[in-house]
Amino acid sequence: MGRYVVRHLLQMIPVFVGSTFLIFVMVYALGDPVTALFGERAPDPATARALREEFGLDQPLWRQYLDYMTRIFTGDFGTAFNGQPVTALMEHSFPISFRLMLVALVLEMVVGITLGVLTGLRRGRPMDTSVLMLTLVVIAVPTFVLGTTAQYFLGVRLGWIDPAVSPTAGLGELLVPGLILALVSLAYVTRLTRASVAENARADYVRTAVAKGLPRRRTTVRHLLRNSLIPVVTYLGTDIGNLMAGAIVTERIFNIQGVGYQLYQGILRQNSPTVVGFVVVLVLIFLLANLIVDVLYAVLDPRIRYA
């Protein structure tokens, strides 16, 4: 296992370099950040030249990338065009987005897997049909409709929650936004778990365990559920980054100034250091999440062994 982890970490290096280089090229080569600073007014050539020299934009693109990656390893993600360090924005945004992601991920795992197991074991029954229809409705309805509806009824009409989340929101305050963020993924987790459980329930090893007289609960938890969760764990691992970076709509509805909000503002204002810095950290989160998923395979399925 140790050698596998080391080998996987080494494989992550070219993936990280390649993905960050593509992001860097797309952000810096497809637009002019200096011109974007002035909006509709065109800057005079002397000012534009001075700004490009200040931010290093007068260098070749490959040199800019090497300088940027060198600074990253010292903890310097650059300075936004408003003069604020990108690390300061990260210190404010990532903790609240991490808490929001944690709430959404727990809801996906607890509610989604539970519903998937119950419907998978009762395939074709009324409960199965009802859950399938409900998940289809959740997938079909846009997130901004679900979010604004929940915000209006729970916050404005009933007063159960604050319509806008405070900048230092705790886990309790993020429960409703986390539920809205998790709904679509929760529906997919439910359907994926249901399909996997229903398929494995007819497998020979399950019938053998039942024939040996093992209790149904032990057969379900120790044998059926562990093998059925492998595709679900794969989905959840890739969903961690999506929950942190893809929460733009949810964060806008509940006024959460997290990672999605900062990325939206950075793209809107062509604030290249902010966009590249945040995306680089998200790439690392994706890679680490995939490593954790690969390690969990061996825990869930004892037939999987890593040299």
| Uncertain residue ranges | none
Number of domains: 2
CATH topology description of the largest domain = MetI-like fold
Q: How many helices?
A: 13
Principal-axes shape call: globular
Biggest sheet details: none
Please report which band the strand proportion falls in: under 5%, 5-15%, 15-25%, 25-35%, 35-45% or over 45%.
Answer: under 5%
DSSP, total strands: 0
H/E series: HHHHHHHHHHHHH
Overall CATH architecture of the largest domain:
Orthogonal Bundle
| Average pLDDT number | 81
Report the helical percentage: over 70%
Mind telling me the C-alpha Rg?
24 Å
**End-to-end distance, in Å?**
6 Å
SS class: mainly alpha
What do you see in this structure?
This protein has 307 residues and is an all-alpha fold. The chain has two domains: 2-72, no CATH class; 89-300, MetI-like fold (Orthogonal Bundle). The chain is built from 13 helices and no strands. It has helices spanning 2-29, 33-37, 45-55, 61-72, 86-121, 126-140, 143-157, 175-200, 204-211, 216-245, 248-253, 259-268, 272-300. Helix 5 packs parallel to helix 13 (272-300). The radius of gyration is 24 Å and the shape is globular. The relative contact order is 0.14. The model has no long low-confidence stretch (mean pLDDT 81).
Helices, strands, pairings?
Blueprint: H1 2-29, H2 33-37, H3 45-55, H4 61-72, H5 86-121, H6 126-140, H7 143-157, H8 175-200, H9 204-211, H10 216-245, H11 248-253, H12 259-268, H13 272-300
Helix pairs in contact: 1-13, 5-6, 5-8, 5-10, 5-12, 5-13, 6-8, 7-8, 8-10, 9-10, 10-13, 12-13
Please provide a brief summary of the model.
This protein is mainly alpha-helical and 307 residues long.
